[in-house]
Each structure stands twice: as structure tokens, then as C-alpha cells.
């Protein structure tokens, strides 16, 4: 089994006033040749957006984009529907950019900050028809078990769908609980973001906003050193 740990403080950071952004991988003005991507996982941004602020209309193509609000309210509008949609904590949003789409993302609150993770996964099919979906997931369904948020459009697995043989899961793991994760294949890797808490894989401990990448294995165990909220992104390597 191969592992790589990315401590929270080692991420790229940008403070734009209205936006505080932490980049797990090279993005915008942040470049680290050792952190270009993790397999098909190209972007994992941990953003805090000021009230009433956000990203104006901008284009994407041939990328699977997943957004997970942690706190606050996200408002999304794109060229497929041209209407503002609200995405709140507990919900997940997916957008297959495909042949091309324009979209805007703003903080929907006049007073509260918005915290979210945005994930970009390189697709296994280019120039598909753009598509959008969002879904609410019950937090009780991830108490000490993996809850699938996103999976391949070619499978019947639970969750929202993307054009890649990938899986995104979340788990709220109680202190001292150990759970085994089985990968889709040995050709897949799993990038685990510790949203909050403290956990260990083998001898590697990782704390809030640290991340640990695991590859070249068909299974591994995670132990919670304290109550932990973990986000797992499994992708082809």
C-alpha cells in the first residue's frame, strides 16, 4: 500500500478579501509540481466566501465538478437552466461540463460566510452533453458507515452520477471506531480529506483539514482517534 499525506498548512492559500481559498492541488496562481493531481482528481478547493460575494459567470468544459457546502448557502446558476438554485449543507451538487457550460456561484446569504469544498474530476468521456444535478443526503445515514455521494454514471450504485469510474463518500466516525474501506480496484486510489477530527490509517495520523492519499491496495482500515467527519474521493490512478 502506498500513502501520501498532505498537511492542512502545506496547501496553497489565497486571500482575495471576499474569498479565502485553500488548494490541495495546483490551481490558479498556486503551483507545486509535487501536487498537480491525485490520479483523476484534479482539484480539491476548500473555500470560504464572504456574504453576498462569489464567482461571476465563467466557462468550463470536459470536467466533472462536484460542490459540497459545509456551512452557509450556495446559489448556483448556469447556462443550462439560467435560474438561481440553492444548495445547502447536507446537499451535494454535480455538474458535467462536457461540451461547455457557463455558470455562476455566489454566497446566497446577506450575513453569513459560505464554506464549501469544490472537487474537479477528469472525466473518462469528453464532449458529452452538459448536465446538472443535486441531491440531499441524510447525515444519519453516514454514522459509522460510508455514505456514497457520487458514483459512475455507468453503475447502479447510489449517489449522484459523473462520467468517471470514481466514487465520493462521506462518513461520521465515532472515536475509537475502526472501519475497513474496500477500493473499486487496485488501480484506484482514495484521497481522504479530514473535514474535522482526528483519524489514522496504519501509522499515519491526520487531523482537521489534513488529507491522506492511499493507493496500490484493495482495502485499508481507518480508525477515529476522536469523532471525525471524513470525505473520501476514490479515482482511477
From TrEMBL:
User: Per its Swiss-Prot or TrEMBL entry, what cofactor is needed?
Assistant: Fe cation
* Pfam family of the protein (one): Pirin
Named from the GO MF annotations, one term is: metal ion binding
Keyword vocabulary terms for this entry: Iron, Metal-binding
Q: Which residues form the Quercetin 2,3-dioxygenase C-terminal cupin domain?
A: 149-235
Sequence positions that bind Fe cation = 58, 60, 103, 105
| Entry note: cofactor | Binds 1 Fe cation per subunit.
Per UniProt, residues of the Pirin N-terminal domain are 11-121
Similarity comment: Belongs to the pirin family.
**What protein am I looking at?**
Pirin family protein
Species name: Lacinutrix neustonica
Show the taxonomic lineage: Bacteria, Pseudomonadati, Bacteroidota, Flavobacteriia, Flavobacteriales
Amino acid at each position: 500500500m502506498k500513502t501520501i499525506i498532505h498537511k492542512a498548512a502545506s496547501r496553497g492559500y489565497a486571500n482575495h478579501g471576499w474569498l479565502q481559498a485553500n488548494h490541495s492541488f495546483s490551481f490558479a496562481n498556486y503551483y507545486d509540481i509535487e501536487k498537480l493531481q491525485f490520479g483523476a482528481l484534479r482539484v480539491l478547493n476548500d473555500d470560504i466566501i464572504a456574504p453576498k460575494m462569489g464567482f461571476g459567470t465563467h466557462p468550463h468544459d470536459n470536467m466533472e465538478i462536484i460542490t459540497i457546502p459545509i456551512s452557509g448557502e450556495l446559489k448556483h446558476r448556469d447556462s443550462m437552466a439560467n435560474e438561481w438554485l440553492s444548495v445547502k449543507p447536507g446537499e451535494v451538487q454535480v455538474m458535467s461540463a462536457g461540451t461547455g457550460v457557463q455558470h455562476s456561484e455566489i454566497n446566497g446569504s446577506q450575513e453569513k460566510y459560505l464554506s464549501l469544498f469544490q472537487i474537479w474530476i477528469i472525466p473518462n468521456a469528453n464532449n458529452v452533453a452538459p448536465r446538472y444535478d443535486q441531491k440531499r443526503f441524510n447525515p444519519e445515514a453516514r454514522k459509522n458507515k460510508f455514505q456514497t455521494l457520487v458514483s459512475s454514471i455507468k453503475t447502479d450504485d447510489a449517489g449522484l452520477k459523473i462520467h468517471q469510474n470514481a466514487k465520493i463518500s462521506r462518513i461520521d466516525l465515532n472515536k475509537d471506531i475502526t472501519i475497513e474501506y474496500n477500493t473499486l480496484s487496485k488501480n484506484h486510489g482514495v484521497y481522504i480529506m479530514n473535514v474535522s477530527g482526528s483519524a489514522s490509517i496504519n501509522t499515519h495520523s491526520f487531523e482537521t483539514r489534513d488529507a491522506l492519499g492511499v493507493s496500490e491496495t484493495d482495502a485499508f482500515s481507518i480508525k477515529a482517534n476522536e469523532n471525525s467527519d471524513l470525505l473520501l474521493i476514490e479515482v482511477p490512478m
